[in-house]
Write a structure and sequence with these properties.
Rossmann fold; seven-stranded mixed sheet; six-stranded parallel sheet
Length: 531
């Protein structure tokens, strides 16, 4: 794919473009079509290049954590990287929390980070920082361009690295002078190595385990949870009776009617041990053995029950769908697998709004092919099974445990799939980390409905205080866990960002508001005040 770059006046002795233009053209030629940006002075030549090179959609984000979270959501839905445009060390570190979530989601991502010009580094200017150190701490691939003539090649390698299975974070640091000085023409696209091939021995061992008569669970992660891989898993479950599970916070799960009904593991370690305690074998497909999110006094962190054998069919970098296809044939699986029927839950009785009531309404009214993003934690996780028999949809939870992910994630998912309704299930505490995403949703006219659980508390931290046996009940301790005094007003916060909003305190009010939102295009927010 080629991209014509206009000649730069006064630069005829060179190739007709500067480093920033060669970079943007290489990104576009490599299939990167969206840039989630929060630029500064060092990135102005990249910004200018967006006017000169066709094919890149710029999306302004008012905080770097929105840009990186949106790139995560875009990648989860497309399988392709977007790029972010970030400003120096502080800008990159502002985005690191959601880079962490994207890394845990195995989302391909290319971060372009502007830096001081190479001849300016010696002055140790106020914004100077150890950008290379920051990037290396969280990226799979990092490069700092040292010459404008290598920028295009560096960009092609960055996209190639991001696409390396199962998906990686690549960070390209762009000193300002490498952006403004004359450069080479764009570099051609570089394809990544294909996913690894699962050995026949691994398939045979899994087939023998499934035929042994021992109670078996499969723990799935990655692209085997949607598309062909999931269909093969459904066939295997139909043939062998094995149970299908996924991580609590898996990157993307196909759910609802027509899916095989994969069950996310519970959040708490004791509950996971109890759930898996009925099984004698745990077969890993693109997943790691389950572990607790945190250590607690007198609680086990390793969550494979004693006496349960661990087997691995495929590792994350290997071709899980192909391995499942081979395993389905090995066990004589039928052509069609398990599929749950469309049987949404009944709507809750009228009265004050509860967390369960909210999700009952959502599951009952969810349109086909919606995308549900979830960071409700205490308000949503106990009730997520209600979505299993709703209309077919994709479910995207926070993956790395760093809150402030879901409003940006839903933003990126909506840009990736503009014809699908996006429903963000979000807690009030988590939403305050990245509420600027609402502004981007308004500006880009995205079809995103945010259900904001307003419990006026970091409810999960109240639970954590008890679990670490540190509960004191004191006023000062409680003051760090509640969100009152004053209460957050999400209707006004949302409207201030350009997103229409309404508050619901009863089941009827919420059901009416959610029904309207499902039948109206554009961004909106429902503040669900729950008891």
């Amino acid at each position: 794919m080629s991209h014509e770059i206009p000649d730069v006046p006064g630069d005829a002795e060179h190739v007709g473009c500067n480093g920033a233009e060669s970079l943007v053209a290489t990104l576009v030629g490599s299939g990167v079509e969206v840039c989630f940006a929060n630029p500064g002075t060092s990135e102005m030549h990249f910004v200018r290049a967006l006017d000169r090179i066709e094919g890149m959609r710029p999306v302004l984000c008012l905080f770097e954590g929105v840009a990186t979270g949106a790139a995560d959501g875009y990648a989860r839905m497309t399988g392709n990287p977007a790029c972010t445009l970030l400003h120096l060390g502080p800008g990159f570190t502002n985005g690191m929390a959601n880079i962490h979530n994207a890394r845990r989601a195995q989302s391909p991502m290319v971060n372009i980070v502007g830096d001081h010009a190479t001849n300016h580094e010696r002055y140790d200017a106020p914004l100077n920082a150890d950008l290379m150190g920051y990037a290396e701490a969280i990226s799979h691939w990092v490069r700092r361009s040292r010459s404008p003539r290598t920028v295009a090649a560096d960009a092609a390698r960055a996209v190639q690295a991001a696409r390396q299975p199962p998906g990686q974070t690549a960070t390209l640091i762009l000193p300002a002078d490498t952006a403004w000085l004359p450069a080479e023409r764009p570099s051609p696209r570089l394809d990544p190595a294909p996913p690894g091939t699962v050995s026949g021995d691994a398939v045979d061992a899994a087939a023998r385990a499934l035929a042994s008569g021992r109670r078996t669970a499969m723990l799935l992660r990655g692209n085997v949870l949607h598309g062909q891989g999931l269909r093969h898993a459904a066939r295997i479950a139909a043939a062998t009776g094995c149970a299908l599970f996924c991580d609590t916070f898996t990157p993307r799960l196909r759910s609802g009617a027509g899916s095989p009904g994969v069950t996310p593991l519970p959040y708490r370690g004791r509950a996971i041990l109890e759930r898996l305690g009925a099984f004698e074998q745990l077969l890993l497909v693109g997943a790691r053995p389950p572990v607790a999110f945190f250590a607690y006094p007198d609680q086990e962190g390793w969550l494979t029950p004693p006496g349960c054998a661990l087997l691995t069919l495929s590792h994350p970098h290997e071709d899980g769908p192909a391995a499942l296809a081979a395993l389905a044939e090995a066990v004589g699986a039928p052509r069609k697998g398990l599929a749950v029927p469309f049987d949404p839950p009944s709507q809750p009785p009228q009265g004050p709004l509860t967390a369960e009531g909210v999700l009952r309404v959502v599951a009952a009214l969810l349109p086909e092919e919606a995308i549900v993003t979830d960071e409700g934690i205490t308000s949503t996780l106990p009730h997520v099974p209600l979505l299993a028999r709703s209309a077919p949809h994709d479910y995207l939870p926070v993956t790395g445990g760093s809150i402030g992910n879901i409003l940006p994630l839903g933003t990126g998912a909506a840009i990736a799939a503009p014809d699908r309704k996006v429903v963000c299930l979000e807690g009030d505490g988590s939403a305050m980390y990245t509420l600027q995403a609402l502004w981007t949703q308004a500006r880009e006219r995205l079809d995103v409905v945010t259900v904001l659980y307003a419990n006026r508390s970091y409810a999960v931290l109240n639970q954590e205080l008890e679990l670490v046996q540190a509960a004191s009940g004191g006023e000062r301790a409680r003051s760090l866990l509640d969100l009152g005094n004053p209460d957050l007003d999400w209707v006004r916060l949302s409207e201030g960002m350009g997103v229409q909003a309404v508050r619901a305190r009863t089941v009827r009010e919420f059901a009416d508001a959610f029904a309207r939102a499902m039948n109206t295009r554009g961004p909106s927010l429902i503040e669900a005040v729950i008891v």
